[in-house]
């Protein structure tokens, strides 16, 4: 076996016990005489898998009963468009707090269906901080207020030190893109109207998204749309309006079980703090060899972009890291440099291996 520590931002590392179990179960499901991925989504075997996954996710995230949980094909980007279609009346506006690349994507997708008001933006600051709540200009009649809980590329996350993980936005429901930080710490879902994310960062494989939505919001008319784009229709049919991504749903379900066995979101919050603290302190203690430019109050626990003072060493850094069993460290093309993603499936020992390597590399090239 030569599996490396995988710091990829997404698709990302999955827990090894989950991969082993999927491998073991792949050929035949119980006494079904076929694989779970070869069986009807409406048959008893998959229905059981689907409902267990939902109840495990509800337990894991303490989802209140007045919220529906959807497992839908398509990535987070799809939902950035669908939320406007479903919750904004024609001509209505929605408020967006822009804190990085994915907030921009959200605005681009929603812009076709809703009047976008950018309430605040961190762009002038290179997305290295989050504009203080007092500076946000919220509309009086917004359909919703959208934030990106964790910016996967810019490494900026809403943290308690900044104010609240879920800022108070008044009347309009708060919609939050949690693609890259869901299940990394306890979350008070009741503060949100809608929480969504693609699974491929912290929850499972790419190809399925999770949408957690307050049921009363589904009574809004929204805009004319096909049934297949309607969250209300999907909820009514238990996310089986059409054939759901059964393989992805099943694998995500295994990840939920693993997270529960490991101690749940409180335990992952503890591990995340520990992993992030170790990496940031290594960067900050490197006498400028490495640097991360994000305001410490909002540094992401999940995605840590960092730069070598001498970008000419980037290629050597990546090659030597790979040689040492550390992969997925190349930064996103928007920022360049490096990025280490520290999702739930990445153990502390992976971060130790990375920081040991970084110190050693710094000594040899500093
Ligand atoms: C990855 C990511 C997305 C995009 O997800 P897709 O599944 O590629 O559509 C959106 N928002 C955030 C915060 C992400 O990390």
From TrEMBL:
Pyridoxal 5'-phosphate binds at residues 76-77, 102, 152, 177, 200, 242-243. Gene3D superfamilies: Aspartate Aminotransferase, domain 1, Type I PLP-dependent aspartate aminotransferase-like (Major domain). Binds 1 pyridoxal phosphate per subunit. Its cofactor is pyridoxal 5'-phosphate. The keyword Amino-acid biosynthesis applies. The keyword Lipoprotein does not apply. Residues 6-354 form the Aminotransferase class V domain. It catalyses: 4-(phosphooxy)-L-threonine + 2-oxoglutarate = (R)-3-hydroxy-2-oxo-4-phosphooxybutanoate + L-glutamate; O-phospho-L-serine + 2-oxoglutarate = 3-phosphooxypyruvate + L-glutamate. Pathway: Amino-acid biosynthesis; L-serine biosynthesis; L-serine from 3-phospho-D-glycerate: step 2/3; Cofactor biosynthesis; pyridoxine 5'-phosphate biosynthesis; pyridoxine 5'-phosphate from D-erythrose 4-phosphate: step 3/5. It is found in: Cytoplasm. The modification N6-(pyridoxal phosphate)lysine is found at residue 201. Homodimer. Belongs to the class-V pyridoxal-phosphate-dependent aminotransferase family. SerC subfamily. NCBIfam families: PRK05355.1, serC_1. Catalyzes the reversible conversion of 3-phosphohydroxypyruvate to phosphoserine and of 3-hydroxy-2-oxo-4-phosphonooxybutanoate to phosphohydroxythreonine. This is Phosphoserine aminotransferase.
């Amino acid at each position: 076996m030569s599996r490396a520590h995988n710091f990829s931002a997404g698709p990302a590392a999955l827990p090894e016990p989950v991969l082993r179990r999927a491998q073991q179960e792949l050929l035949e499901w119980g006494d079904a005489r076929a694989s779970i991925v070869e069986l009807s989504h409406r048959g008893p075997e998959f229905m059981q898998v689907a409902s267990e996954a939902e109840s495990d996710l509800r337990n894991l995230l303490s989802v209140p009963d007045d919220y529906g949980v959807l497992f839908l094909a398509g990535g987070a980007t799809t939902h950035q468009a669908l939320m406007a279609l479903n919750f904004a009346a024609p001509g209505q506006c929605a408020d967006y707090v822009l804190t990085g690349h994915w907030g921009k994507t959200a605005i681009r997708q929603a812009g076709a269906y809703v009047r976008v008001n950018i309430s605040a933006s961190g762009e002038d600051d290179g997305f290295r901080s989050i504009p203080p709540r007092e500076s946000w200009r919220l509309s009086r009649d917004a359909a919703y207020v959208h934030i990106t809980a964790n910016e996967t590329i810019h490494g900026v996350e809403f943290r308690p030190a900044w104010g609240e993980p879920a800022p108070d936005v008044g009347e309009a429901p708060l919609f939050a893109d949690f693609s890259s930080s869901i299940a990394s710490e306890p979350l008070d879902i009741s503060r949100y109207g809608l929480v969504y994310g693609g699974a491929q960062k912290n929850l499972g494989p790419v190809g399925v998204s999770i949408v957690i939505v307050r049921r009363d919001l589904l009574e809004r008319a929204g805009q004319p749309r096909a049934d297949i784009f309607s969250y209300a229709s999907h909820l009514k049919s238990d996310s089986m309006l059409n054939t759901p991504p059964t393989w992805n749903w099943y694998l995500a379900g295994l990840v939920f079980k693993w997270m529960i066995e490991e101690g749940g979101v409180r335990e992952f919050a503890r591990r995340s703090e520990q992993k992030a603290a170790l990496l940031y302190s290594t960067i900050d203690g490197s006498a400028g060899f490495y640097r991360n430019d994000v305001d410490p109050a909002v540094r992401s626990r999940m995605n840590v972009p960092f730069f070598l003072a001498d970008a000419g060493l980037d290629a050597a850094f990546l090659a030597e890291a790979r040689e040492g069993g550390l992969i997925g460290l190349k930064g996103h093309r928007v920022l360049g440099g490096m990025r280490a993603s520290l999702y739930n499936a990445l153990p502390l020992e992976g971060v130790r291996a990375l920081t040991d390597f970084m110190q050693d590399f710094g000594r040899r090239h500093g």
